[in-house]
Amino acid sequence: MLRRFVPLGPSLVIAGALVLVAAAALEMAPALRAWFAGDAPWPRGALLDALVAASAVLLAAAVLLTRRSLMRAAAAEQAVRESEERLRLVANNVPALISYHDREQRYRFSNRTYEDWFAIPQADMHGRTVAEVFGAEAHGRMQKSIERVLGGEQVEFELTTAVGGRSRTLQVNCVPQRAPDGAVFGFYMLANDVTALKRAQEDLRFAAIQLQHDARRLEFLAHHDTLTGLPNRAMFHERAREAVAHARRHDKTAAVLFLDLDNFKDVNDSLGHDVGDGLLRVIASRLRACVRGDDFVARIGGDEFCVLLQDIADPREAAAVAQKLVHELGKAYRIGEHAVGSSASIGIACVPQDGHEVGMLLRLADAAMYRAKQAGRKGYQFFSVVLNQDAAAAAALADELRAGIVHGELFLVYQPRIDIATRQVVGAEALLRWRHPRYGVLAPEAFLPLADDTGLLVPIGAWVLREACEQGRRWLDAGIRPLSVVVNVTARQLRHGSLAEQVRAALDSSRLPSESLLIEVPETVLRQIPEQLEEALAGVAAGGARLGVDDFGTGYASLPMLQRLRVSAVCIDRKLVAGVPGDNERTGLAKALIALARGLDFDVVAKGVETPGQREFLAEAGCRVCQGDLFAAAGPAEEVEPILRAPRAA
Question: 295-300 long-range CB contacts below 8 Å, 24 or more apart?
């Protein structure tokens, strides 16, 4: 019960002090009364009693204050002990190494995780060194980092070591403890086990690598044939489009070779598909070995292959490559235990002779390949009858062209011309196409040479004039603002002598205003123009139609002749436009031609504008009217009509 109240010692001191005060009071009281009453002198002994009583009171107060101070100190110590106990409890339940070390790297505190990981009792950790706990080899790798901590730095490092019989990767953080004067007299160390995290990171890195590998594999499969490893049809189309565009921009020749094996079905049927697959792989290898590094080989299906020849000098080079392929593919093959014989038939379509559209070139090369098979197999044929010099094929294609004229297979597409200063459409060039029943849509390069040789060019030209003028009238009737309808004519049409009459007839029948028709002739026609052609052109101008010169700067036409013919517009050659602004020579020539044409008061038109850089150069050089895919691709009248109606087209 006494422990519930004040301690016994201080209580006795206070009680003794109270007794002394009471005794002194009892002793002093009679003497003081007598002194006050005047019956006795001042009681000298009373002063001593008062001092004794005061001393007792002071002693009791000192005892009480000391007791209170000791109680506060005890409470503070208890709070510290409880705080340390809580911290130790937390530290012992954290799955990480927590410790404090002196400058000799001896442990002065460590949590229970050390016992769990290193199997060293916690009581035995005090005084051990880092080297004793982690081992000499691991300590050697930690030493430099610990020395930096003892030098006053806060250090973080990774340590992979064997802990408790298993390998662990530790993320170690060390923080120095400083004295008031800044000296380091120890450091704290926290080490987290990041083994699982590192393993997860490694798994993630491996998964990312695997994902990249799978993506590359899927991309390869999307663009390559799995059997031969060659590019497939989709990739061939992509590369062929680039090659054709390059050939068109730089006035180069390219060729598409379409190969079909002559007896592959017999090999498959007689020897089995495994032998057939082996034969295809060997053929793919031979094809790659027979062409240049810049050329492109693809398997487009079954026993069909394509070869893209880029930047060749002329079609004769394609013929030489085809002949080499026929020879190499005709050699004997050894597939496993089987000796296999095979050969190939090849069809060739060329740029620019057969057009500039990849799908059309493939169709034409395929058609030429079938002609090679019909001619006895193991050979090659051009699609172009001019290149083949094949009278029978030329006659057949000419008959098809005549039938196409009758059946309405010829049609026009239109490409707008844009005034880049006002961004308005000022004209549309009529471009001829043939919708062949077997080959699809053919560009004029594929059949106009034949039409020229067979006399079909003049009636085709007359039809183009009529159709273009009628379309121009339809646009005017539909409320589209007046614009120039551009029609190209050839030397054959001029020499025929009826061009002026055809122009007047087309204008009269369509009721198109004559100033809305622009007739363009190649500059090469005007270089040494005979009197007959000059009269034909003068007749066109007299009928009210305007004259323009195409491919200006390539034919060295007489400038006085152009003025005499009342030429109103010139078109910069598309090969010059393709070279600006990167090619210094072409850029300089284009600037000079534009300046010359403007000095002669000609309207200047640039064809084949495909990039913003070309447009900006032409605008700065003074060329206002541009035409090209940058603004609008050629298309049927109904497709380009919204562009013609738009307030601004570019």
Answer: 295/321, 296/231, 296/236, 296/239, 296/240, 296/243, 297/230, 297/231, 298/225, 298/230, 298/231, 298/232, 298/233, 298/235, 298/236, 299/225, 299/227, 299/228, 299/230, 299/231, 299/232, 300/232, 300/233, 300/236
